[in-house]
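Subject: sequence -> structure tokens, single chain

Hey, anyone have a minute? Need the predicted structure for the following. Not urgent.
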Amino acid sequence: MAVAATPMNLTRAAHVGISVSDLDASIAFYAALTGREPAAAGTMDSVPFGRSQGLPVATLRYATINLDGLGIDLIQFQDPVGERTNGMANRPGSMHLCLKVDDLGAVYGRMRAAGYAFLGEDYTFRAGEVTPEAALGTRVAYFNDPDGTNLEIIEPKGGFAN
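Reply:
Had a minute. Here:
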């Protein structure tokens, strides 16, 4: 797909939408993860909205959990029901949601004790492995939500990872 090089200046995020298989289970997961309950929840049954997403119709349930500066829209499509992507970080088109923390060690420990399954051990960016230098010392850890959506916690250092 060729895209014109003219800048569109889209610099503010409103929300991230995550398709889920069980809205109630996902609400419980994200409410426990964020400490916040949904700010909005509802249903939709619309042919025009479905078409705007390349679908014949969109019958769905949704809930929005608001973080500071970003909403997480959890969307359970009931018609048409989609197939799980089983996304992995190295698959083109996959994405992840990154949540900033002040003390990764403390949060990582609390999450492990609460039963969150991390994809691997936490990692600290080291010299010789990453540029720019501002990233050195940044700590990250990755895990999945109930549907396999990639999630990350990050303790940034310097000017890395706004």
